[in-house]
Design goal:
The chain is α+β, with helices and mostly antiparallel strands. The protein has two domains: 1-143 and 216-359, no CATH class; 362-472, Immunoglobulin-like, CATH 2.60.40. The chain has helices at residues 33-51, 84-105, 108-112, 115-132, 135-143, 148-177, 179-187, 194-214, 217-222, 224-232, 244-248, 262-265, 275-278, 299-310, 323-328, 336-358, and strands spanning 56-57, 60-61, 63-66, 71-74, 77-79, 239-242, 318-321, 362-368, 375-376, 381-392, 398-405, 410-414, 420-422, 426-437, 445-454, 457-467. Strands 8, 9, 10, 12 and 14 form a five-stranded antiparallel β-sheet that branches. Strands 13-11-15-16 form a four-stranded antiparallel β-sheet, with no helix packed on it. A hairpin with a 4-residue loop joins strand 3 and strand 4. The N and C termini lie far apart (77 Å). Bound molecules: iron/sulfur cluster (SF4) (2 copies). One iron/sulfur cluster (SF4) binds at residues 242, 247, 270-276, 287, 303-304, 307, 317-318. InterPro entries: 4Fe4S_Fe-S-bd, 4Fe4S_Fe_S_CS, Cyt_c_oxidase_cbb3_FixG, Electron_Trans/Redox, FixG_C, Ig-like_fold. Keywords: 4Fe-4S, Electron transport, Iron, Iron-sulfur, Membrane, Metal-binding, Transmembrane, Transmembrane helix, Transport. Residues 261-289 form the 4Fe-4S ferredoxin-type domain. The chain crosses the membrane at residues 37-55, 84-110, 158-177, 197-214, 338-358.
Length: 473
């Protein structure tokens, strides 16, 4: 990109003043086409985020990330520690997805989908506008002494912020320990579960701190995705961008004068009204080019479109565009590169969905008891002792479970002596003996296949080793 005339912006960041103190951003209330669409998307995502831990499909919570008990549900598919490989694959797919998506579409995720932006811009900021008014009124309020009006407005805002932070903390906890458990705690005596109460208080304070004070600093200094932009974006990436060719032309930007033919005079279409700056929630000037602080919230697009409309110039001086397209004066095109990347994204997503559907609902393993040798019994019978574990990932109990040998003739004796139940989303463990006639053994370490049955129905097969004496090879 050509070097802008004013280079001062390179020496400082918008949210820190010359003394190193935080410069509070008072963004103007956005309005316009993109803001309207973003609001619709946000309401949908807010409804999803707030309800997902309380929705159940087939008895499974829709989204659950119970790290302590190692239980995970994604779109109601329960995951167990045994499904770790799936988690690893989904993480790889996720990382590739994020990288490719960002290379093509820039930080669209930040502006449209990120919970931080959604809660800050669509919940907390809207409450702030409601109580304190738009930018001008907020600045005046912050400068005025602590009189009755300021105390009333500030405390009302902080109180509402705290209540919403408390609600978010409850929902967050429901993702971690389960929606049912949280509802149980809410309806019961909170002091019966002191540790949960402490976690809830900590989460509430963290959310309050983020949304009432830390705000855009999360995106600027804390978010690792934001820091990655420098290596992921290139001049083909679609971003919220200022068309500096049109905005500056040969003579640069200048104030609006009525009945002036700016194009003929070589003046740019930017009338330097700075409305795109005052509306920006991270306090930057998009006319300085793509910046790490830009969360692609589109507020500056809407604002500049209003200005262009009011002075009868075409909209889109700030728009979704790639650097290349701005230089070549082309409008957005779905290039072969984008098509290729999108195809890879689709394939990866397809693979992951396929793996999710092909995953077993029941998992069984039988392992020889460590340190135990085989036993030689009467009638040439060899016996080995094992521990077994059956995991039921479904939301129904699996009843009347038993084992049968599939590869050899012999018997399996459970120590409990009777068939067992594997509870829903639970497991059954125990000890068993496998007895084979020595004549049936091919080596001193035979691989044997065992079927797991529920009644007469084979629900899973598993393999283990059977040890015998060397002489029977
Ligand atoms: S809102 Fe548009 S016209 Fe006004 S300063 Fe920004 S880019 Fe220039
Ligand atoms: S520069 Fe524009 S898109 Fe980027 S954060 Fe500021 S207002 Fe949002």
């Amino acid at each position: 990109m050509e070097t802008p005339k004013d280079e001062k912006f390179r020496d400082s960041i918008a949210t820190v003043d010359s003394e190193g103190k935080r410069s509070w951003v008072f963004p103007k209330k956005p309005s316009g086409k993109f803001y309207k669409y973003r609001s619709y998307v946000s309401y949908f995502l807010l409804a999803f985020l707030l309800s997902a831990p309380f929705i159940k499909i087939n008895g499974n919570q829709f989204l659950l990330f119970n790290i302590l008990e190692r239980k995970f549900n994604i779109f109601s598919f329960p995951f167990w520690p045994q499904d770790f490989y799936l988690l690893v694959v989904s993480m790889i797919v996720g990382v590739v997805f994020i990288i490719l998506f960002t290379v093509i579409f820039g930080r669209i995720f930040c502006g449209w989908i990120c919970p931080q932006t959604i809660f800050l811009e669509m919940v907390f900021r809207k409450i702030e506008y409601l109580i304190e008014g738009d930018r001008g009124k907020q600045i005046r309020l912050s400068k005025q002494p602590w009189n009755a009006e300021k105390i009333r407005k500030k405390f009302l805002k902080w109180f509402i912020f705290f209540v919403i932070s408390f609600i978010i903390a409850n929902v967050f906890l429901a993702y971690l320990i389960g929606g049912d458990t949280v509802i149980e705690y809410i309806t019961g005596n909170p002091f019966d579960n002191i540790s949960t109460l402490i976690s809830l208080t900590i989460f509430t304070c963290v959310f309050y701190f983020i949304f009432a004070w830390f705000r855009e600093q999360v995106c600027i200094i804390a978010c690792p995705y934001g820091r990655l932009q420098g290596v992921l974006l290139d001049n083909k990436t679609i971003n919220v961008a200022y068309d500096y060719k049109r905005g500056e032309r040969e003579e640069g930007r200048s104030k609006f004068k009525k009945n002036e033919d700016r194009e003929a005079l070589g003046k740019g279409d930017c009338i330097d009204c700075k409305q795109c700056v005052v509306v920006c929630p991270t306090g930057i000037d998009i006319r300085n080019g793509t910046q790490l602080e830009c969360v692609n919230c589109t507020a500056c697009i809407d604002e500049c479109d209003h200005i262009m409309e009011s002075i009868n110039l075409p909209k889109g001086l700030i728009r979704y565009e790639s650097e290349d397209n701005i230089i070549k004066k082309k409008s957005f095109q779905f290039t072969p590169r984008m098509k290729g990347y999108s195809a890879v994204l689709l394939i990866l997503t397809g693979i992951l969905i396929g793996m999710l559907f092909l995953r077993n609902d029941v998992e069984a393993n039988i392992l020889r008891l460590p340190g135990q040798l085989y036993q030689q019994k009467e009638n040439n019978i060899i016996s080995n002792v094992y521990t077994y574990k059956v995991i039921n990932k479904t939301s129904e109990d699996i009843k009347d479970v038993s084992y049968k040998l599939l590869s050899h003739k012999g018997t399996i004796k459970l120590v409990s002596n009777h068939n067992f139940i594997v509870p829903k989303r639970g497991l059954a463990e125990g000890t068993l003996f496998i007895e084979l006639n020595a004549a049936a053994l091919k080596s001193d370490k035979d691989k044997i296949e065992i079927g797991v049955y529920s009644g007469d129905k084979l629900i899973e097969t598993t393999r283990t080793n059977f040890l015998g004496p060397r002489s029977y090879k």
